[in-house]
Amino acid sequence: MLGSVGTGFYAAQLTRDAVPDQVLTQAVAAAGMSIPDAAATAEALPSNLGIDLFDAARIAFTGGLHVTAATSAVLLAVMCTVAVWALRQGRHPQEGA
């Protein structure tokens, strides 16, 4: 589930607007599949365009990691809260029995 969150953020951030106009739409689409695909696509482009494409991919990937980490932290906090609540709801042994 968390991988899907990061991948979705990456793909949403690496758009046509994130790279120079000279980078073909097909190259942006290929780079949007994964960071290794972005590296391979960037290598096939002229150096300045490849650098710009890979920089945009790196920024999108890092953002995806941040979103995934934040989502994990929120889920962990919720699960800890539920665990504490559930443990407090348990039966306590009666005194003197």
Write structural notes for this entry.
The chain has 97 residues and is mainly alpha-helical. The chain has one domain (2-88). 73% of the residues lie in helices and 0% in strands. The protein contains four helices and no strands. It has helices at 2-13, 25-31, 35-44, 47-88.
Brief description of this entry?
The chain has one domain. The protein is 73% helix and 0% strand.
Question: What key attributes describe this structure?
Answer:
97 residues; mainly alpha; 4 helices; rod-shaped
Secondary structure blueprint with pairings:
Elements: H1 2-13, H2 25-31, H3 35-44, H4 47-88
Helix pairs in contact: 1-4, 2-3, 3-4
Mean pLDDT across all amino acids:
90
Radius of gyration of CA atoms, rounded to a whole number: 22 Å
H/E series, N to C?
A: HHHH
Overall tally of domains = 1
Query: Count the helices. How many?
Result: 4
Q: What fraction of residues sit in β-strands?
A: under 5%
Could you estimate the helical fraction of the residues in percent?
over 70%
- Identify low-pLDDT runs: none
Distance N to C terminus: 47 Å
Count of strand segments: 0
Biggest sheet statistics: none
